[in-house]
Structures are given as C-alpha cells and as structure tokens.
Amino acid sequence: MEQKKNYVGYEYLSISVGNDMKSVYADCYQNFGWVIDGFGSSDILGSEITLKLKRDRRINNRIQLNEIQRKCETALETIHHLETSKNTKAIMYALGLGILGTVFMAGAIFTFIDGYIIACIGLAIPAFLGWGLPYFLFKKIRRDEINKINPKIDEQYECIYDLCDQANALL
Predict the structure, then answer these.
(1) CA distances for 156 relative to 73, 74, 150, angstroms
(2) Counting C-beta atoms within 10 Å of the first and last residue's C-beta, which end of the chain has fewer, N or C?
C-alpha cells in the first residue's frame, strides 16, 4: 500500500552575512523555525556568504515569531554597525594627521626651494611627526573605541539570546 505524503508549503529566506557572523545567524534563525537549506555564493572577496533558509508556512505562532525575529535582526544589524565603528574614528584621526604632515612637508619643500633652510627644517619636523605618529594614534584610539563599544556589543548579544529563547519557547 502506498503512503500519501502530506503537502508542506515552505517560505524561503536568503540573507547575506559576514563569514565571522555565519554561525550566530544560523543559530538565531533556527530558533525562529528556519532550517538551513544551503549556502549561496559569497562576495568576490569571500568575506560574505549567503544563508539560504526555509521553514514551514503553517508553523505555530508565526506572527509572534516574525515580530521577535525582526527585533533579533535589528540587534544583529546593530552589532554589525558597532563592529565597523571600532575603526572609523581611529582611521579618520590617523588620516587627518597624515594629511596634515603632508601639508607641512609641502611647505618644507617650498621653503627649501626658496632657500629658507631654517624654515624648511622647522616645517619638516612636524611633517615627519605627521607621517610617523598616525600609526600610534590609530592604535590608541582604536583601543579606546574597543573598550567603549564592546560592552554595547555584549548588551546586543544578551538581547539576541533572550529573543531566541522567547522564540524557541513559542515553537
């Protein structure tokens, strides 16, 4: 006797995530009833991958799960933005100091051409400092930003864990 298969309608979702966050996203979405259906191609640099997910359309508490899922996605995006912001301020200050050093060097060159050696030396010293200090400035500011931002990232992870726990209870 042949058994008749029950029809299961699925909804599908594809999301692009960084390779470093692939496991976090996969774990989170499984708590919302999603099943990993495969992985798509990553970007050219290989820093992103596409997660292909599916879940039964007739899942219980779907509306509540979708609402909690949106909150979780917001927290995941916040983590992504906080991670990228760790370097932003440090890069801007280091770049600004490097450009300022270049301006001083241009002034030193022009004063050298005009024959003002003492002025050339006076402008060359801050020029070399402007070229040598950005690395150390970058490291210091980045370290300070990491110390300031990591607690905020930890808060978002706690929020994600709570939301995933709520979603799992609804399943």
Answers:
(1) 11, 9, 10
(2) N
Q: In whole angstroms, how far apart are CA 36 and each of 42, 113, 135?
A: 16, 67, 42
| Cβ neighbours of 43 (radius 10 Å) | 12
Question: CA 152 to CA 69: how far, in whole Å?
Answer: 20
**Residue 9 and residue 142: Cα distance in Å, rounded?**
49
Q: Is 96 helix (H, G, I), strand (E, B) or coil?
A: helix
Whole-prediction pTM value?
0.78
Coil, helix or strand at residue 35: strand
The string of pLDDT tens digits covering residues 41-84 is: 766 666 788 899 999 888 888 889 999 999 999 999 999 999 99
The SS3 call for residue 86 is helix
